[in-house]
């Protein structure tokens, strides 16, 4: 009997990663190419088709591809489209699912990238055995995916779990968000949010810091995390403030969902305990008493290279759900 | 064949209401007695047993009671206990389900009162045909119940949906909540919250108002709603501020759950459009663009006298789920 495999596609703003994944989460082949978010959508499809064809050639007759899962920004699980993705010039509603079905003639499922990550953690990662948890991805923005009663929570319109855009600062001088709102969580808790915090702190504090010689555009999550791990006072203070805000929000999200755990992923989570400990402390201080001491906050052990696992989990689920 | 019936018990801080309810939500018999939240728990059980026995006597041989549903403050759906209910002196973990099972030897299910209301709206009310909605009860406090993918969302510890205790004001001078936290939604959006707002406005504004001759303790939700309906400027301003805060939170909750609708219940919802219109306006202003124009806000048409319907729906679900 042939070994059944699923194709996971992690469609990112910069790179698209493709992986062939087994039922137990082994990645047996991968490809990576530039997404071309500013180029026309048909160009992307052409590149995708070429890479998919190359990847299929590496499989032998003992393998059988049975489904495709796609994680993409602003993907709508119900419509199969990417909708109004701010960093893409592919149109307002991009029919990813139907176009990928044309290329490979296999069942295709799509989800918001962070929602796919939540499924990946459930099937292959730290969410194994948990029926209620929330994944928070701390990258350029803040994404989230909710597993509730064992299932991905997608909501009435396929767009549940946009925690990056809950309000954490109702004051008039709250930070402006790309989405048009003010005071959104991701303007504070994300790589971009931390850069903003660090620039405020550079203006406010007098401590020496290597961060003073880096421009706003050049300041990556890795640089910030490395500075904090080296004891830089500005980076440490920035993590403290970020963790405080994140903890308050985790408490609010707990009051909605009563999860078993929050699982943090992405660039900022590399800082480990520097992020984790003050986040847990802030969450516990702000939790409604029904939840105190009951909710874990974890950092994912899934390497960023394995970004195709979430989409692959979605593919496997597509088969199970029929 | 006998007609199957369910018993709904609405266990409130002041009164306990019992009703015998048909599959389609007709209430065929009711009882009401003082809960005695400050008296010992065994006293309550004695009263409950007496009333249940009286109610059973009104049924004839064509009826068959098959299950019991209970809605109660701070009820934990998993443990079957009321846990740390602030206005009750019955102990930290009150085993309601097991004690009621002893009295009637029928399957018993319990849920937080607002969670039970959500099931009631789903089975008998405005939530019919909706798989994703959130009920918000605006009484002395603020309760909530979440229906997600057709099911009551109970979470990992049976305590999901405590929206009264999400933070809406992170500033140092936020209002203190009974729960020990500061800035909780229910300190602004509830009858108690509106009283606090009105007392601030009485201090701030110069307008004549009948509210100036009513003490804090005497100011009920009905009085506030009536004043607003009569055009009282202080009551109207209080509703405007309350609706603004509620709308911001509904937007945040939408970013978690992507519901089809919010359904408002309880004392304050009696104000109708005075509450509803500015709530919708505030929610829309604060919604992430993926949701704008898609989420309805409704006022329940279930009369308060029908508080047993939610618990009864829970009883019916208990039978269906086995």
From TrEMBL, chains A, B:
Pfam families under this entry?
ROK
Hey, which family's this protein in? Belongs to the ROK (NagC/XylR) family.
Full protein name: ROK family protein
Q: What is the lineage of its organism?
A: Bacteria, Pseudomonadati, Bacteroidota, Flavobacteriia, Flavobacteriales
